[in-house]
Amino acid sequence: LQSGGNKPWLGPWMLKECISHLEREWKADEPYTLTARNALLAAAKGAHKRKSTEAKETGTDAHALIASLIQLRMRGGNEEYLVKFDSEAACAVAAWQAWDEAVKPEYLLSEQPVCSRLHWYAGTLDLLVRVNGRVGIVDIKTSKAIYPEHFVQLAAYERALEEWLIGPIQFRAVSRTPKDGTPYQWLEAPFLTEED
């Protein structure tokens, strides 16, 4: 349900990661053989891939921790037994906890596989919740921003739920729980008309 999309910041970010790697690793007063220099440059060229992989792994860890807390709560458990992590994942969990306290959702479904037989796609819905009497779907993201493709994903989940006669869905939202310690973001998606 997702694609890379057009992200104009991607090129400058890749260059920044390359330069950061060179600034950390290049020793100006040290002579380099051609092989050593080429290895250093190759590592710099791949720095953005390593950073991206690390971010994805941290995001996956954070998402799994949040999902575990929600599912534990849905079963009536107490999340106090969980180990406190000292990492970016812990920052994302803390942002989710702040969102949870502020929004006070009633969790109806969590990590629910959904599919559209009509359109031949499937995915895993993060949350079906009730907030202030309205039923909606929420996608939890640990990304640096909320992107338009996040709302395409939510619309696809909504269509799949409709096929299974779950609804009506009254809102679609992204809850961004950052890994950098900044506060959560909550953004509801506009509803599309049949013509859209």
Beta-strand residue fraction: 15-25%
Structural class: alpha+beta
Number of strands: 5
Helix coverage percent of residues?
Answer: 40-55%
The number of helical runs is: 5
Question: Given the C-alpha coordinates, what overall shape results?
Answer: elongated
Computed CA radius of gyration, to the nearest angstrom = 21 Å
Strand order of the largest sheet: 1-2-3-4-5
* Average residue pLDDT: 79
Query: How would a crystallographer describe the biggest sheet?
Result: 5 strands, mixed
Helix and strand pattern: HHHHEEEHEE
How far apart are the termini?
17 Å
Q: Runs with pLDDT <50, length 5+?
A: none
Outline the fold blueprint:
Layout: H1 10-25, H2 34-45, H3 47-74, H4 88-103, E1 106-116, E2 121-131, E3 134-141, H5 148-163, E4 171-176, E5 185-188
Parallel strand pairs: 3-4
Antiparallel strand pairs: 1-2, 2-3, 4-5
Helix pairs in contact: 1-2, 1-3, 3-4
Task: Report on this structure.
- This protein is of the alpha+beta class.
- 45% of the residues lie in helices and 20% in strands.
- The protein has helices at residues 10-25, 34-45, 47-74, 88-103, 148-163; strands at residues 106-116, 121-131, 134-141, 171-176, 185-188.
- It has a five-stranded mixed sheet with strand order 1-2-3-4-5, sandwiched between helices.
- Helix 3 (47-74) packs across helix 4 (88-103).
- It is elongated, with a radius of gyration of 21 Å.
- The model has no long low-confidence stretch (mean pLDDT 79).
